[in-house]
Amino acid sequence: MKHILACLVMLLMAGQVAAMEVQSWQTKGGARVMYVHAPQLPMVNLRVMLDAGSARDGDLPGQARLLNELLLEGAGKWNADELASELESRGIEVSTHTGRDMAQITLRSLSDKNILTPALDMLAAMLASPRLEEEAIARVKERTLAALRQASQSAEDVADREMMKALYGDHPYAHDPLGTEKSLEKINRETLQVFHQRFYNQANAVVALVGDVDRTQAEILAEHVLAGLPVGEKAPPFPEPNPKKARALHKDFPASQTHLYLGMLGIHRKDPDYFPLIVGNHILGGSGLTSIMGEEVRNKRGLSYGISSYFSPLRVKGPWMLSAQTKNSQARTTLELMTALLRDFIDEGPTQKQLQAAKKHLAGGFPLRLSSNKKILQQISVMAFYDLPPDWLDTWSSRVEQVTRAQIRRAFRRRMPMKHLLQVSVGGGK
User: Fold this and answer.
1) pLDDT digit string (tens) for 17-26?
2) 243, 278, 326, 399 - which has most CB atoms within 10 Å?
3) Domains of the chain: residue spans and CATH
4) pTM
């Protein structure tokens, strides 16, 4: 009975995905908008993304994230306390996030115009007129320094940072969005203002919107939140990163476990090999304990507490990483096994049985990625920022189903040669 109910739920969700229409247009200032009408709840979820992520930091790592955090620390006629009070009194949620490609600010509000209108006014002020007061800058810097100190005490975070530096060298993706203690000292109100003037404009922005507003209202909302920004120009494209020669790096760290990373340059969002590589990675390590890595390294041999792999597609080639944690005494054995399994997969590809299981899991689980307005917003945000077609969600499962063993084998052989494999291990210290 439970199985039948689960199947009915999945069929219902699949029908909702098929019925969902993603609409797209450009604002007068040149910003791309993606919108889904969702009248089931009296809510609006809206996100503004700017090509102003940490890869735009230049010589001051951390300034993109610092600026984006400061959007919540006072804007326009509201200081930090007043802004927080206004949002809380109306039940409006606003959050920010900064990655390597994008800086984003997300709003969730009731669709009632008496609440939504002031919510949009405040969001527009945050984007166009952040106060950047000295006290706020010092406060956000201190939070950032605390996050840096915490990251330095985590072997996993240290391994991740070391791998990104090894993969990208002097490319803008190399440094962490948090920046460094040294660079944070150099960032001030003037440098933040220059960054804001350069990258916070309409041509450099995209908008994603899901909720209880019709198309006409959605167009007005998108224009409203961006109205205070200058039209400006899009940021220039990033250079393509160059693959590095295979090498192994180790960093002693006082822990009983060693964190192991294998990495290579992966794919960008519009990569022609996107689907063969995504499906292949699911089989290799992306599906956790049921993957090849999970079965061979953890289940059969008990060498790792956890193991997984993933692609992180970006504007240009993002990283592919395979990570595991193991006892210090087993680090060498585990790393050798992980490398051997990867080499075998690149050479041979998956079995037909593994491929069919992966397709069933990926396509069957896809409706869960669209099971709430928040999740729909996340999906269309990616579509909007990376200029993916409006039918991306409609065709995703069918494109997974079309992937063949030959395509996976060909894509992994061509795109992931062992001569570019980097190894990073962090641990083993006393």
Assistant:
1) 445 899 999 9
2) 326
3) 21-226 (3.30.830.10), 247-426 (3.30.830.10)
4) 0.92
